[in-house]
Amino acid sequence: MAAPSLEAPRSTPYRRSTSRRSNYEMYSWLFMRLSGAVLVVLVIGHLFVNLMVGDGISGLDFGFVAGKWASPFWQVWDLAMLWLAMIHGSNGVRTIINDYAQRDMTRIVLKTLVLVALVFTVVLGTLVIFTFEPCPVGPDGAFLEGVPSFCTS
Amino acid sequence: MSSTDSEAVEAAADRNDEQVDGDGRPHGRAGESASADGGQLGAIPRFDVTLRIRRYSAEDAEDGKPAEARWQEFTVTVNGTDRVLDALHKIKWEQDGSLTFRRSCAHGVCGSDAMRINGVNRLACKVLVKDVNPDKPITVEPIKGLPVEKDLVVDMEPFFQSYREVMPFLITSGHEPTRERKQSQEERARFDDTTKCILCAACTSSCPVFWTDGQYFGPAAIVNAHRFIFDSRDEGADVRLEVLNDREGVWRCRTTFNCSEACPRGIQVTKAIHEVKRALLTRSV
Ligand code: HEM
Ligand code: SF4
Ligand code: FES
Questions:
Q1: Minimal Cβ distance to B245: which of A7, A23, A30
Q2: B48-74 burial, b if ≥16 CB within 10 A, otherwise e?
């Protein structure tokens, strides 16, 4: 038949690995849109409160952050933002890896790196949000400089 | 037909040469000189245009080094009514017979001559030279993402492979009806747009996802699946939806709209892809 000698090397990048029957990509697609919509609110709200309200950006210091994380409302807000942005962003990078990395091994290595970075950041961030000490004391037992006002009152 | 045009006589069949005033004098713009000279009525302007064509031939390989694509410029005189395909014909017939491209119907029906003209996918037979800024060299390249065989000819096999995989034929169960399979006008209208596809690959080869990931089914396969998924007479929707639920199926689409922009039949490709996505999400057509 026509030019069979050329067929094999050419078709390699086009040959689909056996299709997997799962809804994984569908849920991933849906998640990108849903998390994106929630992120718009979370991120704009975050920027507004941190940079615009009150003293604006000049009011941003340790005390400000500590004050926010003393409130369960902001703990949940920041936790949601952390998780959603990290999963959304990592899933987006996964898509880009699928776009560009052709060899299976390259894909596996890159996606593993993304997953490690995701888990590390999410675990560390979650830990910080919940174990944060808003009123740290020095070795002398006194509050450190810059603690929020509610520590001393 | 005057002697000045006679060397292009072979080309006359699908060009409007009859309308060209063949007196050999420079022509004014159409209609401009109608009163000065009755023969000029409806005269078509002629102008020179340069085509910058991306050429590749495996035969150019030297001493074991693989052949490389190169750019070559050709200047031809065309009529204001000529299409890029006519300019390519002129080059092939009058200047360089080795220039290789596909065309069959030359009238936007067969889908053979999709190519990248000034960076966008078009059918060479549907785009007028005067409409793609002939003041500068017009670049003509093969469509992207498919292996080039020679000059503007690409290997369409991966494209048709995806097309075959969505089963673009009527799937029914039960006995053949003795009469036609009836359908209301509303039912027909649901997939009217996607019946227009001529499989030119302009959409698939304009898709940035397909450029980097050749395993992606691509817009054309989804358009042709849509054609049957939303056909009330067809019973294979679930199978086709399952095929497109693949890792390399509809979810690969990033809604860039390049495909809708490229389609020479004006099919709203991105919308069709979205309708398939929605059918998968709701599991209903
Ligand atoms: C602010 C609100 C955001 C919205 C509305 C949003 C929305 C989206 C949507 C809908 C997609 C899917 C695109 C597609 O498949 O066609 C996407 C992809 C992506 N997003 Fe977001 N996103 C937001 C924030 C973020 C953040 C904070 C990050 C980083 C941490 C991020 C990183 C990414 C990446 C890397 C992709 C993949 C890009 C691609 O598919 O080429 N996004 N985003
Ligand atoms: S959908 Fe349009 S661009 Fe795509 S193959 Fe069909 S006719 Fe060509
Ligand atoms: S040659 Fe048939 S579509 Fe252009």
A1: A23
A2: ebbbebbbbeeeeeeeeeeeeeeeeeb
